Amino acid sequence: MKVGRKPTLFDHGRRPSSDDPFTFAEYFAGVGLARMGLEAAGWTPVFANDLDEQKRRMYEGHFGADEFFVLEDIHRLAESPEKVPHATLAHASFPCTDLSVAGRRGGLDAGQSSAFWGFHSLLEAQGEARPQLVLLENVTGFLSSNGGQDFRSALKAMNDLGYAVDPFIIDAAHFVPQSRPRLFVVCDRGSDPTECLAPDALEPSTLRPKALLDAVTRASDDIDWCIRSLPDLPPYGSRKLGEILDQVPAEDDQWWSQERADYLYSQMSERHQAVARRMMESRKWSHGTVFRRVRNGRSMAELRTDGIAGCLRTPKGGSGRQILFQAGYGKYRVRLLNADECARLMGANNYHIAVSLNQALFGFGDAVCVPVIEWIARNYLNNLVHASACSI
């Protein structure tokens, strides 16, 4: 792991000028991967907020962002909007715990996911000083949470603040070797209706699959949409798992004991064991990832070998830790993906990690994929800012 502290934003002399249109505030900032993606597309951060002290430690370990990172509950922050400087864009990856199909699905008004309403209250309190653009991010389960009512409620709430909305889905596997589909909603206060596509005229596509279009149809009655045409994504799965792996020597203690590796193998189904044996028969190393899941009351090890890792998750109870299975030359080895490899799966190459593996996994498991955010900025947000500047 890399230990160190990068110079701060203002050490670099990058204090934004008063006329810089590419400024953003980062809410539910986590470990700062949205910031990395936006900065790569030419944006400048002016504010960051999160409630988690451990994630702030990671954020500051990489960015040194003491100057503008506010550690505070979003509901309390909404009571003091003067703490937030003006920005063109607000990025908000609000908690997915109560929206995910893997969670309790309490909905947008329950537990952690109710933080969306704190964010909404802050925007409301900012009045006409609120950002021109908002980028929301969450799990695709948001579309069906509470029968689609949570999705509709959030969009209607953004409409009430003057924002037209445009949802789409991007799987990180178009950019990195990790399957991580996420829902994004661009919210724009200055949209031109003549540039918008009619929701009922859309055909299913990679960015707007049938499940999303069905959710749009269910929500459509009085929602102010501004759906725009977007370019094609890079090919799915063009990056492979082997590209992000460290070359770990066989004697390194990251590798599990053979006894422990054999036990993992014994937890595989016959079909997955057959795949593992074919990997072993090769005269080269190949790689797969393994997740432990409970099937019919039994803990099973499920092997994936298409070159794409499963979705990184926070390691609650240990089940979220992704396991590397390396096989070839008549044998196999097993270890956990390390923190640097998990960072690369999120597109956060060369991220400075100065915390424990478990803390790093909590940070990256909750984060956004860096090149996905960069793509959205370059192919969507930047165009809106340029169009707004030209209309003045």
Summary tags:
disordered N terminus; 392 residues; 2 domains; Rossmann fold; globular
3D structure, described in words:
The protein has eleven helices and eleven strands. β4, α4 (115-126) and β5 (133-139) form a beta-alpha-beta unit. The N and C termini lie far apart (48 Å). It folds into two domains: 23-235 and 364-391, 3-Layer(aba) Sandwich (Rossmann fold), CATH 3.40.50; 247-337, no CATH class. The protein has a seven-stranded mixed sheet. The protein has a four-stranded antiparallel sheet with strand order 9-8-10-11. It is globular. The protein has 392 residues and is α/β, with parallel strands linked by helices. The longest helix has 22 residues, at 370-391. Residues 1-14 have low confidence and may be disordered.
Brief summary:
Helix content is about 30%, strand content about 20%. With about 400 residues, the chain is an alpha/beta fold.
Q: Average pLDDT value?
A: 89
Q: Please indicate the percent range of residues in DSSP E strands (runs of 2 or more).
A: 15-25%
Reading off the top of the CATH hierarchy, the class of the largest domain is best stated as Alpha Beta
Low-confidence stretches: 1-14
Topology-level CATH name of the largest domain:
Rossmann fold
Ends distance: 48 Å
Total beta-strand segments: 11
Shape assignment: globular
Q: Report the helical percentage.
A: 25-40%
- Our count of helices gives 11
CATH homologous superfamily placement of the largest domain: Vaccinia Virus protein VP39
> What assembly state would you assign to the polypeptide chains in this entry?
single chain
Examine the secondary-structure arrangement and name the CATH architecture of the largest domain: 3-Layer(aba) Sandwich
- What's the structural domain tally? 2
Assign the structural class, choosing from mainly alpha, mainly beta, alpha/beta, alpha+beta, or little secondary structure.
alpha/beta
String of helices and strands = EHEHEHEHEHEEHHHEEEEHHH
Radius of gyration, in Å, reads: 22 Å
Largest sheet report: 7 strands, mixed
Strand ordering within the main sheet: 3-2-1-4-5-7-6
